[in-house]
UniProtKB/TrEMBL annotation:
Alphabetical list of InterPro entries matching this protein: ICL/PEPM, Pyrv/PenolPyrv_kinase-like_dom, Pyrv_kinase-like_dom_sf
UniProt-listed CDD domains: ICL_PEPM (cd00377)
GO molecular function: lyase activity
Matching Pfam families: PEP_mutase (PF13714)
Domain of life: Bacteria
Record keywords: Lyase
SUPFAM superfamilies tied to this protein: Phosphoenolpyruvate/pyruvate domain (SSF51621)
Name the record gives this protein: 2-methylisocitrate lyase-like PEP mutase family enzyme
Length: 262
């Protein structure tokens, strides 16, 4: 576990308020390798939505835990960079099962993970706060037992599911107390909400962004520690592919990217 532990330590050190880790989410070996070779990229993160769709199943643990672990290993083995795995809800109904599954995830080389606090595929309802915190604690217990300082990016779905601000902050701080390293705070759609989260949460903040979000440079200025794009990078890729297919089918010019070598 020495190499995995070193990658986890590196991943944790890259979450710097004001100098956020930017992770362009990947879903297979080739996207992992291509993104890892991009200038400035220091770590990778998977997106469960993208991996699920690539396997022809719905997001929300449409994959079995064995399939999810196999997909994670393919990505981890394709790069030397630390990889944070979107591990959905841990693929288990209770803390004991989560601890077992996270142990297996660490064994395939994950340096970090996302863990969700919603019960089903939609963002609501959520587990009760103490239950959700116990699930985060189970992740930390597995990491401690393995001797790997796994970076836990604990997701708070409250605002995205239509819940109240105070509950979201309460959950965020409970997850930090349970062993989370970073809070993946969904629903921070404007600058005021980002500022408020940074003021009220007792730890580092991770956000997901898209073209309608607070600009990246401003997120850095405010003090965010990590920015990801979830399935947006899959959408970006598929949009370019579909546009190229349309152009080629119409006997148009060859897109310059058709000559991209990898």
């Amino acid at each position: 576990m020495t190499n995995t532990a070193a990658k986890a330590e590196l991943l944790n050190s890259l979450h710097i308020p004001g100098e956020p880790l930017i992770v362009s989410n990947v879903w297979d070996a080739v996207t992992a390798r291509i993104v890892s070779e991009a200038p400035g990229v220091k770590a990778l993160a998977t997106a469960s939505h993208s991996i699920s769709f690539a396997h022809g199943v719905p997001d929300g643990e449409g994959l079995t835990v064995d399939q999810a672990l196999a997909a994670a290993k393919i990505i981890i083995d394709a790069t030397e960079l630390p990889v944070s795995v979107d591990f959905e809800k841990g693929y288990a109904p209770g803390a004991a099962g989560i601890e077992e599954n996270v142990t297996r995830l660490i064994e395939v080389g994950a340096a970090g993970l996302n863990i969700e606090d919603s019960v089903g595929a939609p963002k609501a309802p959520q587990f009760e706060v103490d239950v959700a915190a116990s699930r985060v604690a189970a992740v930390r217990a597995a990491a401690d037992r393995a001797g790997v300082p796994l970076v836990i990016n604990a997701r708070v779905d409250t605002l995205a599911g239509g819940g109240e601000w105070r509950e979201a902050v309460t959950r965020a701080n409970a997850y930090l107390a349970a062993g989370a390293d970073v809070i993946f705070f969904l629903g921070l759609g404007d600058e005021d909400k980002v500022k408020r989260a940074l003021d009220e949460v007792n730890g580092r903040i991770s956000v997901i962004s898209n073209p309608k979000s607070v600009p990246l440079k401003r997120l850095a200025e405010l003090g965010v520690s990590r920015v990801s794009f979830g399935p947006g990078t899959l959408g970006l890729t598929l949009s370019h592919l579909q546009a190229a297919a349309t152009q080629l089918t119409a006997l148009g010019d060859y897109p310059a990217e058709l000559g991209f070598t990898y």
